[in-house]
Design a protein that fits this description.
The chain is an alpha/beta fold. Helices cover 71% and strands 9% of the residues. Strand 2, helix 1 (36-47) and strand 3 form a beta-alpha-beta unit.
Length: 383
């Protein structure tokens, strides 16, 4: 911001004239950010070391003044006031007065909004983190309630559901994820079969390798590995998508137009994830058993028929049903956490990255917790 820079000398000049206890400082030239340190030092030198009652700074010769220099003059005025000096800024033109009017003294005296970071002890840090977790839990419960209300409304009014969006997210979360899910499932089955073979061959119990692989994949590894992959692929995408919309004020625009953001944005994602994750789990189980069969045929001297029969003897309908139920629950957790974190974004790309990472980490943590609860529940149900 400048007052005038036409026909302006690039340096500055300060001349002083003392009349008793009054000092007159006449300025000429350019006063801006590039020479701010120098002229501020010179002004303090002129005003210091003398017994003065008042100081006047004449701006009649100033041909260039920017906002940084104006702030420096304001700070000098404050310093003079603290020293008991009366300082006057005289002969300011209209543009210079406009520059000084931009400076808000109430803002300069206000404490910063962000407190200084400092170590306040372990107990304080634990308390702060506990409060953060409690608020986060309350926010998640609140969002879960809003999501359930939106789902109930959708079930009561099926025409309000945007079917194209559901199909779009089914393709993105399900169809596009088939290759990586199949590959990870195949490698997991292969690894389990190989490690089991190394131990069971010492007992001559190679025949139990197919049972171990099929049981492990169907009961635990299939659902949990699929859920983790979906959390990394789709949960993060949901959070980033909604977060970017929040930054661009598109979520606010939906509310202004009378749309419920949860029903409009979250419901299609949740329904699509609940549909595709159990299907992906079946694929992961199938390719896991296929990977184990590769080891069984090549290293265990088992035929493909023997391997399949041993696997079918181990897998029960109850195990398959509980596996699909776990996958559906994991899908609900992944999609709801991803959407909720997206709605928490307030401003900036930094917030998008922060809550996208939080969506993945929180989803994986809740998946493990839910899997532990299922393990205990199914143990008592079977017993």
């Amino acid at each position: 911001m400048t007052a005038s820079k036409k026909d302006c000398r690039t340096d500055y000049q300060i001349s002083s004239k003392r009349e008793g206890d009054h000092l007159l400082l006449v300025l000429a030239g350019e006063f801006g950010l590039k020479n701010l340190t120098l002229f501020r030092k010179d002004l303090r030198k002129e005003m210091g070391g003398q017994k003065l009652q008042s100081v006047s700074i004449d701006f009649s010769g100033v041909c260039y003044l920017d906002s940084a220099a104006a702030l420096a003059f304001f700070q000098i005025e404050q310093e003079a006031d603290n020293q008991g000096l009366v300082l006057h800024l005289v002969n300011l033109n209209d543009e210079a007065k406009g520059i000084f009017s931009v400076i808000r003294t109430d803002i300069l005296d206000r404490l910063p909004l962000k407190p200084k970071q400092g170590s306040k002890g372990l107990i304080h840090e634990v308390g702060q983190k506990s409060l953060y977790l409690a608020r986060d839990f309350i926010d998640f419960v609140t969002f879960t309630g809003e999501l359930l209300v939106a789902l109930l409304y959708t079930f009561r009014h099926p025409r309000s559901l945007r079917g194209r969006d559901v199909l779009f997210y089914i393709q993105r979360a399900g169809v596009d994820g088939l290759p990586i899910v199949a590959l990870i499932g195949f490698l997991m089955g292969l690894i389990i079969a190989f490690m089991s073979f190394l131990q069971l061959k010492q007992l001559g119990a190679n025949i139990y390798v197919p049972a171990l692989v099929s049981f492990g994949m169907v009961k635990e590894l299939g659902p949990i590995m699929t859920a983790i992959l979906v959390a990394g692929r789709s949960g993060s995408a949901f959070a980033a998508e909604i977060g970017t919309m929040a930054v661009n004020e598109e979520v606010d625009a939906l509310q202004t137009m009378g749309f419920d953001p949860v029903r409009f944005l979250a419901v299609p994602k949740v329904l699509a994830t609940v549909i595709v994750v159990p299907i992906l789990t079946v694929y992961a189980d199938f390719f896991g058993i296929l990977g184990g069969m590769l080891i069984g045929v090549t290293s265990l001297d088992l035929t493909a028929k023997t391997y399949i029969l041993q696997s079918l003897k181990t897998i029960q309908v109850f195990d398959v049903i509980t596996s699909l139920i776990k996958a559906a629950v994991f899908a609900c957790l992944i999609s709801s956490i991803g959407c909720q974190r997206g709605f928490q974004v307030r401003s900036g790309a930094q917030d998008v990255g922060k809550f996208t990472t939080s969506a993945v980490v929180t989803s994986i943590f809740l998946i493990v917790v839910a899997d532990s609860i299922f393990a205990v529940m199914l143990y008592y149900i079977r017993s």
